[in-house]
Amino acid sequence: MTAAPGISTTDKVLELINNHPKGITIKAICDRLNRSVSMVQICLKQLIAQRKIRTRLSANRMHLIYYPI
Length: 69
Fold this sequence. Notes:
By secondary structure, the protein is α+β, with helices and mostly antiparallel strands. The chain has a domain at 25-68. Helices cover 45% and strands 17% of the residues. A three-stranded antiparallel β-sheet has the order 1-3-2.
């Protein structure tokens, strides 16, 4: 069995973040893409390493907010 061709989860995460210039939380990403937190965390780590997104702490310093670069 092989993976079906198409847009990857990492690409979907990047597209979602790019559509939210004011930032988005991991919970919102998971809810919108219907993916687990662990799967989205892997994608986010890759995107940060590739310098395609950036992070900041929320105002209450409880959550990371993901932003497009």
